[in-house]
């Protein structure tokens, strides 16, 4: 049976800073290519994306790639950028109540195409390196915010009886290249956790 895995997310999804293998999604793609003849993985991560951005592009990009398969698997790995505090806004980039509504809307749209919907949770961050971000003096990442947004994803996933891969406590400071983006070892850990979860739950 032909199966496509579509992974929507941000720079971590894209594979930022994994100089060895291109990120956890690319590692998953290589694993499927080498071990599963019937599974194709599409990496649809874009740096800087929030749930607002995924909502704008999800259906268009999904339909462009959704051809001639019997099963569709959709993975969302998004939320760290939403949680960032913007000094100029005096608020998080995407307010937490809007974030929750966005997650619900993504689920509603995705359910039109598949019941195999998976959320990969948010990662631990090294707050001391990210207040403010070295590349954006207006943006601050706080660990409490990231955890709160991760809890929203977990709760909404449970309410909708969806798959949720919890990786919040998976990484340590040494697994982060700049305080937020995993290095190659960090991406490897995420890949292994996601791969195990997909196999354990008979998704691949």
Description:
With 204 residues, the chain is of the alpha/beta class. The protein has a single domain (3-200), classed as SGNH hydrolase (Rossmann fold, 3-Layer(aba) Sandwich). The protein has seven helices and eight strands, in the order βααβαβαββαββαβα. The protein has a five-stranded parallel sheet with strand order 2-1-3-6-8, sandwiched between helices. A hairpin with a 4-residue loop joins strand 4 and strand 5. It is globular and about 50 Å long. The model has no long low-confidence stretch (mean pLDDT 96).
Instruction: List low-confidence stretches.
Output: none
Please identify, by name, the CATH architecture: 3-Layer(aba) Sandwich
- For the terminal residues, how far apart are their CA atoms? 11 Å
Indicate the proportion of strand residues. 15-25%
Number of strands: 8
Write down the CATH class. Alpha Beta
Radius of gyration: 16 Å
Number of helices: 7
**CATH topology description:** Rossmann fold
Order of helices and strands: EHHEHEHEEHEEHEH
Task: Detail the topology: elements first, then pairings.
Blueprint: E1 3-9, H1 11-14, H2 24-35, E2 39-45, H3 51-65, E3 71-77, H4 80-83, E4 85-86, E5 91-92, H5 96-110, E6 117-120, E7 139-140, H6 143-159, E8 163-165, H7 184-200
Parallel strand pairs: 1-2, 1-3, 3-6, 6-8
Antiparallel strand pairs: 4-5, 4-7
Helix pairs in contact: 2-7, 3-5, 5-6
């Amino acid at each position: 049976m032909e199966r496509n895995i579509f992974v929507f997310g941000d720079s971590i999804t894209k594979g930022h800073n994994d100089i060895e293998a291109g990120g956890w999604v690319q590692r998953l793609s290589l694993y499927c290519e080498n071990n599963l003849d019937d599974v194709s993985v599409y990496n649809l991560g874009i740096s800087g994306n929030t749930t607002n951005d995924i909502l704008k592009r999800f259906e268009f990009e999904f339909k462009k790639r959704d051809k001639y398969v019997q099963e569709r698997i959709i993975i969302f790995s998004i939320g760290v950028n939403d949680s960032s505090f913007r000094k100029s806004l005096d608020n998080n980039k995407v307010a937490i109540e809007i974030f929750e509504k966005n997650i619900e809307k993504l689920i509603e749209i995705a359910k039109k195409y598949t019941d195999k919907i998976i959320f990969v949770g948010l990662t631990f961050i090294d707050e001391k390196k990210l207040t403010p971000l070295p590349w954006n003096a207006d943006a601050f990442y706080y660990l409490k915010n990231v955890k709160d947004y991760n809890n929203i994803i977990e709760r909404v996933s449970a309410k909708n009886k969806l798959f949720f891969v919890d990786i919040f406590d998976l990484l340590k400071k040494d697994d982060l290249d700049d305080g937020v983006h995993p290095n190659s070892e960090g991406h490897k850990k995420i890949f292994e956790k996601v791969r195990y979860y997909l196999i354990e739950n008979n998704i691949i």
